[in-house]
Amino acid sequence: MSTSGTPSAPAPVPEPSPDKPDHAAGMSRGRAWSVRILVILGSLVLVLAVLALWISREALDTDTYSQTSSQILEQPAVQQALARTMVDQLYANVDVAAQLRTVLPKQAQGLAPVAAAALQGYAVQAAEVLIASDRFQQAWIKANRLMHSHLVLVINGGGKRVSTFNGEVAIQIGPMLGELASRLGIQPPASIANGKIVIMSSDQLSTVQKLARWLKAAAYVLPFLAIILFGIAIYLATGRRRETVRACGIGIIVAGIVLIVGRTMIGNYVVDNLVKIPENRPAASAAWGVLTDDLRDATRTVIAVGLIAIIWAWVSGAGKRAIAARRAFAPYARKHIDRVYIAFALVILLLIAWAPTNAARRLLPVVVLTVLAIIGLEAVRRQTVSEFPDAEDGTLAAGIRSHLPGSRRT
C-alpha cells in the first residue's frame, strides 16, 4: 500500500512467453524423435502423393490426356518429329520410286530413286504444313481421345465392345497418311489405311492393369496419409506445436524442391538417354515440358502451402511483431467473429476466382485446403482472445496512426 495515499500503478500485463524447450514442456526424448520422424515421413509421402495424382490424371483421365496431347501437338519441334514419322511410314508402305518411274520420260527413269529421295524432303515440309492445319489438329485430338478412352476401358477390364485390336492399342493415322499422299500426288495402297502409332501391346496389358490399380489407390490414399502424418506429429508435440507446424511447413517446402529437382533430372535423362534419335530430342524436350506442366503447377501449390504454414507459426509465435499483430487483431477476434470469417470467405473466393494454380479449380483440393485454413485461423483467434481478453475496438487504428508521419511515436 502507498504511504502517500496515491493509488499504486496497475501491474503490467506480462507478454506471452516463448515456448519452453522439449524437456520443460513435458515432451520426452522419444516423443520428440517420434514427432521428427512423422514430419519426415509426411514430407516423403507428400512427394509420392503429388506424383501419384499427376500420373493418374495424365494417364487415366481422358479429358486431361486429350488436352495435354493437343498442347503437345502445338509444339513446333513435335510437329517436325511427327512429320518425319508420317513420311517414314508413307515411304515404308509406298514404292515412291516405282510410281515416279511410271511418270518420268524413258530416258529419265533411271533417276527415279534420286527423285524419290528428293521428294522425301519436300514431303516432310508438306507434312508439317498439314499437321499445323486446324483440320489435322482436330483429327488428331479426336483420334487421341478415341484411343485413350479405349485404353482406359481395356485397363479397367475391357468389355463386350472394347478390346485390343490385333493385340495393340494405337493411334490410327491412316486417314492422315492418305491425305498427305494425295497432297504429294502419290497413289497410296489400301494397306496405308492401317497406319498407326502403337501405344501398348497385349503382352504389356497385365502389367499396365496392375500399375493402374495401384496408381488409382495411391492417388486417393497418399494425400490424406500425408495430412494424417503431419496432424499426428502436431498432436504429439505437446508444448511445441507451433515449432512443429513450422517444421511441417519446412518439410512441405523441401518436398516441393525435391519435385522440382526430380522433374528436371528425369526430363534430362529421358531426353538424353532414352531418345535414341538425336533429331527427336527437341520434340521430346518440348513434350516433356507440356506433359509435366501440371506437375510443375502442383509443386507451386505445395510450396505455397508450406510457406503459409511457416507464416502461421510466426503469427502465433512469441516474437514482438507477432504479438503486436495479435493485439491489433484481438478486438475483432473477440467481438466481431462474423467480420473475421466474412473477410476470410472473401479471400477464399478471390483466390478461387484468380486461380493462381490448377488446385484452385478443383473441388477436392479447395475443400481440403479451406478446411485446414479454417482450423489455423480459429486456432490463432482463440489464442488471441486468451492472450488479450480486455482488448477494445480502435487498437488497430491507433497502432496505424502511431506509425504515420507526424506522429509523436516512431
Could you list some keywords that capture this structure?
71% helix; elongated; disordered N terminus; 3% strand; mainly alpha; 410 residues; 15 helices; 2 domains; two-stranded antiparallel sheet; 2 strands
Overview of this protein structure:
A two-stranded antiparallel sheet has the order 1-2. It has helices at about 30-60, 60-75, 75-95, 95-105, 110-130, 135-155, 175-185, 205-235, 240-275, 280-290, 295-315, 320-335, 335-355, 365-385, 395-400, and strands at about 170, 195-200. The chain has 2 domains: about 30-55 and about 210-400, no CATH class; about 60-205, no CATH class. It is an all-alpha fold and about 400 residues long. Residues about 1-15, about 15-25 and about 160-165 have low confidence and may be disordered. The relative contact order is 0.11.
